[in-house]
Amino acid sequence: MPDAIEREAPIAGSERFLDLDAIVVGGGLGGLYALHRLRKLGLKARAFEAGSGVGGTWFWNRYPGARCDVESLEYSYAFDDDLQQEWHWPERYGTQPEILRYIDHVADRFDLRRDVILNTRVTAAEFDPASNVWTVRTGGGHVARAPFCIMATGNLSTPRVPDFKGLNSFNGKWYHSGLYPRDGVDFSGLRAGVIGTGSSGVQMIPLIARQAKHLHVFQRTANFSLPARNGPMDAEIEATHKAEYTARRAAAYETPFGIAGFPPPVKSALEATPDERDAAYEAKWNEGGSISFLYAYNDLLVNKAANDTASEFVRNKIRSIVRDQNVAELLAPKDHPIGTKRLCLDTNYYETYNRDNVTLVDVRSAPIQEITPAGVKTADADYELDAIVFATGFDAMTGALREIDIRVGNGPTLAEKWEGGPLTYLGLMVSGFPNMFIITGPGSPSVKTQMIVAIEQHMDWIGDCLTAMKARGMKRIEPGAEAERDWVQHVNDVADGTLYPLANSWYMGANIPGKPRVFMPYVGGFAGYKRKCDAVAANNYEGFAMSR
Ligand code: NAP
Hints:
Blueprint: H1 13-16, E1 17-19, E2 22-25, H2 29-40, E3 45-48, H3 57-60, E4 67-71, H4 81-86, E5 93-95, H5 96-109, E6 116-117, E7 122-128, E8 133-138, E9 143-146, E10 148-151, E11 173-176, E12 191-195, H6 199-211, E13 214-219, E14 225-227, H7 235-243, H8 245-252, H9 274-287, H10 290-294, H11 304-321, H12 325-331, E15 344-346, H13 349-352, E16 358-362, E17 368-371, E18 375-378, E19 382-384, E20 387-390, H14 399-403, E21 405-408, H15 414-417, E22 436-438, H16 451-472, E23 476-479, H17 481-496, H18 526-538, E24 544-547
Parallel strand pairs: 1-9, 2-3, 2-10, 3-6, 7-21, 10-22, 11-20, 12-13, 12-20, 13-16, 14-15
Antiparallel strand pairs: 4-5, 7-8, 8-9, 17-18, 18-19, 23-24
Helix pairs in contact: 2-16, 11-12, 16-18
The site of NADP nicotinamide-adenine-dinucleotide phosphate (NAP) has 28 residues, from β4 and α6.
C-alpha cells in the first residue's frame, strides 16, 4: 500500500513474552470495550493493534468526508452514563476526526492505553488442546499466552485494492479509503480519479470534486444514496436525548438494528395509494437517514413489488437532480432493490455530477483493463490522472480473521474451515476452536445494526460467560458442531426470506473474486438475536460444551 502509516514497533526483551488471562486482537471500538470489560472482571488482558493509534475503522478511514451514517447521539458507547452525558457531539452525524477524538477520549478516561500494544499486527494464534492455552504471535515478535483469545478484528478492516495490472507503474500517487494518509491529500490542481461508488466513494466524491482540477469517477455499479441532512447538533434535541439516554439505550435493545426512535411500520407499501407512497417517501427523503426511509413500510426488504416503489422513487429523485439525463440514468441503480446493498447517505452526491469538472465513467460497459503510468485504461478509453483513490471496499466480515494463521493443534486453520463460507454459532464462537470468541463475527447482526450496540452486547455476553465458567471451575468452551450447523442454516434461511440475496453485495462476499457467495450477517433483527443469546446462556450455555 502507498503511504502506509503502519510500522511494526521494535520490542524490548521484557515485553516480548506475555502471560495473560485473555488476549484481545484489535484496538478499535470492540477491542477497547473488551479491555474495559475484562479489567472489570479482574482479568489481565492486552490488546494488539496494527495501527499507531487506537480507533480501528475510525483510525484508518481518514478520507475526505468520512462520517458515520448513524446519528452521533446513538453511535457511542452506552456502558457509562457519565461518559454519554458529558460528551458533546457537534453535528447530527459524527465526522471521522470527531469519532476518533471520542475514541481517544474513552481510551484515556478509562485508562485503557496501557493495555494496548500499538503498531503490532497479530500473525498467528494457536491453541494447545492439552493445556487449553492460546499462543498468539505478532509480526514484531511478541509471544502472548492466555487461556482465552478475543478477536475484535472488525468487519470492514481488510482494505481491498483490485488486482489491476500495471498499478505499480502509475506515475501519480494512489490511495485506498481505508488506509488513507494521516495528513490528508491536497487534490488542488490535480486530475483525480475515484474508483468505486459505495459509501466511501459517495462521501469523498463531492469533496474531492470541489478541490481537484478535474475528477473522473469510475463507476461499476450504481448505488442508492439518500441525503444525510447533516447539520449542527440541535441543542434541544441533544438535551432531550441525554435526559432519556438510559431509556433510549434500553429501547435500542428491543429494535431490529439497535437504534431507538423509529416506530416499526405496520403497513405494506402495496396497501398505500401511489400518492400516499410518494408523500411518505418524500417526507423520509427530507428527514434524512436510511433507517427512517427503509422503515416507511413494513415490506420494503422482503417484497420486491413493494421495494420497487421505493427504488423508483429514489431513481426519480436522481433524474430530477442530475441535469444530464444520460448521466442520471447511469447513476440510477437498476440491478438491485434499494437497501439490499448498504444504502449510502450523502451530502450533495448526485448534485456533484452537475459540475463541469466531474465526469462519470461507466466501467460496467467498458471495464478497467489496467492502470498505466499515465492513468486508467478502460476497454474503450485512456484517462490521464495525477492521483487515484480506490474506494473499492474491504474483504468484509471474514477477511481480517482469515489473514491470521489461526489453528488448534494440528487441525485445519480457521481459513481452511471457512473455505466454503464462515461457520459460527451465534457469530460468537467456532466449533473446533475452543476459547476463541469473536466480537460481531459473521452470523451475528453486526453490520446490520448500530455497531457499538452489537459490540457491547457481544462483549457483555462473553464477560458473563467467562464469569460463569470460573464459577463452575470450567476451563474450556466451544460450540457443538450441530449447534453451529443449525445456526448457520438459520442465518441462511432468514436471509433467504428477504431480498438481500438479490444483490451482489459485500454482505454476500460478492466483491471479492473467488470468495464464496454466502450471506454473512444475521438479518433476523438485533432484539431477537439478543434474546436468543440470553436464552442460550440461561439454559446452561445450550449448544456449547464446557469442560474442565
Ligand atoms: P463498497 O461498498 O464495497 O464499495 C466498493 C466500490 O468499489 C463499489 O462501487 C464497487 O463496485 C467498486 N469496485 C470494486 N472493485 C472494482 C473494480 N475492479 N472495478 C471497478 N469498481 C470496483 O466499499 P466502501 O464504499 O468502502 O464501503 C464498505 C462499507 O463500509 C459500507 O457498505 C459501510 O458498511 C461501511 N462504510 C460506512 C460509512 C458510513 O457510515 N458513512 C462510510 C464508508 C463505509 P461493485 O459494486 O460493482 O462491486
